[in-house]
Amino acid sequence: MATDTLVPITVLTGFLGAGKTTLLNTLLRAPEMARTAVLINEFGDVGLDHLLVEALEDDAVLLQAGCLCCTIRGDLSAALARLAERMAAGQAVDRVVLETTGLADPVPILQTLLADPATQRHFALAGVVTLVDAANGLNTLNRQPEAVRQVAVADRLLVSKPDLVDDTAMQALLARLRGINPGIVPVPVRDGAASPEALLGQRRFDPADQGQAVRGWLDEAAWDHHGHHHHHDRNRHDAGIHAFSLSFDTPLPWQGLATWLEMLTATRGESLLRVKGILDLQGQDRPVAIHGVQHVWHAPVLLAGWPDGEPRRSRIVFILRDLPRAVVEDGLAAFVAASATA
Ligand SMILES: Nc1nc2c(ncn2[C@@H]2O[C@H](COP(=O)(O)OP(=O)(O)OP(=O)(O)O)[C@@H](O)[C@H]2O)c(=O)[nH]1
Q1: What is the whole-number distance in angstroms between the Cα of residue 1 and the centre of ligand 1?
Q2: Is this complex's ipTM strictly greater than 0.95?
Q3: Nearest-atom index, ligand 1, CA of 18
Q4: Which of 231, 260, 291 finishes a domain?
Q5: Could you tell me where the DSSP H helices lie in 181-237?
Q6: What would the pLDDT profile of 142-192 be if each residue is shown by its tens digit?
Q7: Does 236 fall in a domain?
Q8: Which atom of ligand 1 is least distant from the CA of 191?
Q9: pTM value?
Q10: What angle do CA 263, 304, 100 make, to 5 degrees?
Q11: Are 12 and 116 found together in one domain?
């Protein structure tokens, strides 16, 4: 198949809570983003993103791609093969956006897109867009090597949440980003307000443009020798990181829940890599989305309504580092029990 008939794939990455879904929701509203297939992958089995990505245009496609970071080759190739089948059956797709989990090491994803023969028959990697959270970026880069790799392989760098930091903090982050990926000028983006054109230019991703370290990572042989085995263990990217979700069938009281979350954040915020939830709250007909990212809590968002086919109940996903599940689960259970009897 000629190169110009290949469907371009843009990889959208960035650490947990950086604002990937927010950006995607904005972009998918633009008319030129019609006929976009969105592949979302989530950490382990606990994702909520497929609920948080707002209604897609009629002709857009949303596919779950499994946990890309772990079983990358198989799951990603299989998701793209399913998409190729739908295209062969008449589904019009002009581009693919692949939103990775925040914990994804981007390297095996890029290797699959650049090297898997079945994938290359239909698709071509067009670019890697990496979002960095202005509020948490430096701290994350200091602690999470996958976040550094996400920045290093980017050919577009966006700094989200510029509204949450002062100029000094922003300059420190920009200096750090220059050190990791000197070729790219980061662009601040507030609440995902970026133009599709700026993001999804259809230039082909070329490993030759990337720095020495990135070329080394992308090199198949080097990868097989260094550390590939680290990435097979599902749900354990780092010995201390784990994810789980809790659900509640009866409506929760917002005030009490918020107080408990505030306490947890004050004492263990550093360990709360990501908390996101869809809540069924007492006295509220519509679902409420909550987002925590390390020490930062974003304002809760009232969603349009409960998605069709989804049971009406609260679900909260926690991705924690060095904090046992029981601390969260027992604390929350005690609070729910107390508020039920109050
Ligand atoms: N203040 C502020 N908040 C933002 C901005 N961009 C995103 N957010 C908020 O950050 C939180 C996390 O955003 P998401 O888009 O869910 O982040 P994500 O990268 O998709 O998260 P994961 O998929 O869990 O890794 C949400 O509450 C967003 O509203 C911004 O520019 N400014």
Answers
A1: 38
A2: yes
A3: 19
A4: 231
A5: 196-199, 212-218, 220-225
A6: 999 889 999 998 989 999 999 999 999 999 999 999 999 888 889 999 999
A7: no
A8: 31
A9: 0.81
A10: 70
A11: yes
